[in-house]
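Quick board copy: two proteins, each given as sequence then tokens.
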Amino acid sequence: MSLGVPSLAAERNQSIVVEVIEFKDEKIPIGTPNILKRSYESLDYDECENDLLVNEAQRKGYPWEIRKKISRWFICLIVGLLTALIGVGIDISIQYLAKIKYTKLKEYLDACSDVDCMYTPYLFWLASNLVAVLPGAVLVAYVEPIAMGSGIPHVKCYLNGIKMPHIVRLRTLVVKVVGVVSAVVGGLACGKEGPMIHSGAVVAAGISQGKSYFLKFLNMHSFAKFRDDREKRDFVSGGAAAGVAAAFGAPVGGVLFALEEGASFWNQGLTWRIFFASSVSAFTLNACMSWYEDHPGNMSYDGLLNFGSFDDLNYHMPELIIFVVMGAIGGLLGAFYNFANHKLTVFRMRYIRSRWLKVLEVLLVSGVSCTLAIFMVYGMEQCVDIGDNPTPYPIQMHCDDGEYNSLASLWIQLPETTVRSFFHDSSGTHAIGTLLPFVIVYYFVSIWTYGISVSAGLFIPCLLVGGAWGRMIGIGLQANFPYAPILANPGKYALIGAAAQLGGVVRMTISLTVILIEATGSIIFGLPLMITLLTAKWVGDFFNEGLYDLHIQLSGVPLLAWDPPPLSFILNAREFMSSPVTTLQPVESVRRIVHILRTKTYNGFPVVDPCVSSADSVRSFGRLKGLILRSQLIVMLQNKIFNVNTDGWDNSRINMSMFRKLYPRFPTIEDIALTDEEMNRSLDLRPFMNPSPYCVQMISSMQRVFRLFRALGLRHVVVTNETNEVVGIVTRKDLTKYRVWKHFGQCGVKELKIV
């Protein structure tokens, strides 16, 4: 159904049509994207400029600020180094374990060319996959479920201002690292590049705080000054960018990724620090992996995903039309990928909820992937000279001496190696007749794989599928236009296909273009890549949203979009604000504060002067004096700061350190023990509250309020009338419950249900 917004909009003879989602008998179906979960809280990115912070700044002066700036650069250095070393550990572990697996599998396959003995390599392949994926699946399902997938949607939500439980815990990092090694070695259609972004974010969050709940002995007091959401957010941005740099050898792409995919905030100083962390990460990984590959100092190992060197990556103007068509194909395939995976994810949320079922699904996916691969290895062939291409595990299956089965080699090697094969294998290595079934099988297997309970990314599967069908297009062009030298490079079209497929799924444009430019080392090919990615995004957006956004919506996360809903300037704050408001007085009784904290779930309370009367038609709750957070009240009660103001208080005990030492795990009101005598005391909130919170007039438009939230990463905005009396409050959920939907070129606004 639809309805027009009431009150002022109706009085002005204007309306914005909002589709209201209704659920029969108030039963919310599991897996619906039309809800927001009340359990997701916002982060406090707005710095509370209370008396404690002002006194601390005055007492410590300029030298303290200079030390903070130097410390930020030092932390970025450590984040870049550690993120790269984690990437090195992941890559070496995967290479070592995969070498053992594929070497033994090659021996079994080379010793068998008849169907009667194929059970031996099949059983070994199946057993090795299942044994490899089982530890990672168990860890994700039973120890840390948030380590599932690439982690990019979670990081995106965190940078957007949403408190995601356990997202930056050390335990999450351990499960993520072990899980991604397990998944890749287990033969799943996944990659290790996406999880590197999440790993970098965890490293940055942990290092910047100088303490760990898991490692209780670790407590670096020199980093205590960064223990707040705002500082932590900036470092997490740098860690995510460092993860991109380590994965692709793309420091500039890492900076743009943090900007395009997550950050609702930015400044010049942060840009330089993030670029520094990304450069350190890329350099460290390059140096370590070059040393590991026995050519130290050569610096030829750009990232975990090494695209190799493209010698001839040129193009002519007419080819831009081909690139646009390939971008459209990538957009269509990406839209179907997202649609199918979305439906599959809803099915999982409704029916695969038990932990043992999640582990069983991982084993099933691994087993089916192995079975399909062995059928293709035995049933199809593409024999080429073994000297033409340096494949790590050449399989002779059905081929003469001196030849190998190029189709078999696509399965019996790491996915990153297969991507490079499509880019750099010589002409004639692959044929359309063998690539087509490979594309179909791997495409649907990758759809099934993304979303199961393992730590794995989708960059590699998308690049691999796109590289395969892009290579097919290159082979077709080469066959039909044999006298056109510019079309004689099928690897070029494999690269365009890989970009189109990945862009069609994730809908990234600027950052992905720069990542691919840095990974290939070809600036001149930037225009074709940009055109391809933009086309893939536009075509894909016509049908549905990017995969990360779809998964975020299914999770019920109140993510703030980049732009406000269309026609939102028609609505004003009084029509979507939350009211009535729970307020506190500047000096409030402990008993009432405890009662409010136990009965209300709010995290911010306006502090008001109650001696106000208003003639306005909208009820007011007192003249605004400030805003105080739940966490501040909890700390005050825990430290029993009763009847205290700034006159003669103990600066050694009552200061910002009280809050920083408990951050980010503040106790709950149930953890605070108070006597009857203490309950009769009072708290002076004025030294602790934010005396100048962000507020808007109740006639302010939704568009203005939305942009204020989005630009500043706010958690609360107080709504006042013309005499500065509080009439309501706006939170993230009040804005995000109005979501824009797009389908087949149409769009609208729907109002979500908060549960």
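And the next:
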Amino acid sequence: MGGGYFVLFAFSSFFTTAVQFSPPKYSACHSKDFGYDGTVCVCSDELECDSFSKGSTPLSEHEYAVYTSSKAGDRFSLRTGKARQTSDGGKSQFVEAEVKFTVNQSEVFQTILGIGGAFTDAAGINILNISSTLQQKLLSSYFSQDGIEYSIGRIPMASCDFSTSPYSYDDHEGDFQMVNFTLAKEDFHLKIPLMLSAVEMSRRNLTFFGSPWAAPAWMKTNGKMQGAGQLKGVAGDKYHKAWALYFAKFIKAYEDNGVKIWGLTVENEPSTGYIKGYAFQCMGFTAEMERDFIKEDLGPTLAMFGYSDVKVMMLDDSRNFVEPWADTILGDYETAKYVSGIAAHWYREEQTSPDVLTATHKKFPNYFILNTEACAGWTGPPSERGVHLGQWSRGNEYSHSVIENLSHWSTGWVDWNLALNMEGGPNWVKNFVDSPIIVDAENGVFYKQPMFYHLGHFSKFVPPGSQRIEVNSSEETSLEFIGFLTPEINTVLVILNPEPRNITFEIIDQKLGIITETIPSYSIQTYIW
């Protein structure tokens, strides 16, 4: 089915009566400074993890809650306040506010799928390297009501660089019928058990999607899973039919083991399959090649096996490819009927305006956009790469990307590895990066990074099924902001302050009244009423 089905389904999930928000309190974190521009929170068998408790007292009329996390050390610090009522049509009688935000819940945009991360081999290795008690604390931090309640999980189909070696699900050369297809030990040990635990502890329906890095080596033009190369042959031939069958077998194998697959991306970063000397697993597609593979092989194969409801996402690569690839793939009717959405990565976002997302949405409004991969510490000189424990600015970068992309029609934002080690791995090609949770297995602890809290300001309070709403500022401001209406008909406004100074502002809502607040320097706040 096309993306229109997704949009209609999501909109129909809205409740018709408001459920008053009961703000949960957040326990204090055990802070530790590693010398970067911020701190981490420490969790161990002995130290209780910082977590949410169940909210008990609903907000009263005209009351709001605000959660603050900051470079200075706040972590979901909760306050409540009361909006003032005016008789002047909602105009402020105070002039000290630097900017005024006007919230308009009647102007709604896309429906939100959620926020999440990836169940890589590396994440599984690190999570299983700590005690069973600490494993539960880590997963709970992400997926339970006590945590930030991720709702999306990405699954590498077989290996990626965040594995300990390249492997596929069928290394038997010439097995075009995929008779020997089988999940790997990594799926059974490092991925599926953790995913099932996440499902069990979550009060939300978790959305899982798979992404392949490369076909088995015998199916690639260079004879290796890693390095520049494409799928042998052309769309419609035995290699492409076999590769499409591989997807269907993956869906069935995971579902046989208790994990329902909601969606698939056609290929992780297809542009990398043309980079000479590329170090890890990849496989090249042009937009035309991906179009023809979907049309002639993948779409019909999934339909034949009863998986036409699985959401096929095109691209799964950087923002600069979004519009031209959509023109080629979604502009072809026979292909478009098998596609539901467009997957985009955050790498080098600053080089391409987010307006291309809006332009693409306007051309193809029935197809959702989803940001499917991001990580900090992936580029730059050695001092800028890998793990930076406590670096607040990396959390800032995450929130900036979430606000920017969701403000331009993206339906969600998926981080990369759920957990990495102190080096930023394991990674078989030493492509070490950062993660919202870092595991120090040697000392039996894990660290929650600023990135974790930044993402939580969205994932916790903007549940799947929420809709983005119109929020206008009275003038240009350095504050970054975005608003939502939840399925319970609560209003959520997230504001990011990237400045080294406090900023006073007002929020004007016709029904609630006027909120006058100050956001601390280098902080993120979530307002709910």
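Board note added afterward: Residues 1-16 have pLDDT under 50 and may be disordered.
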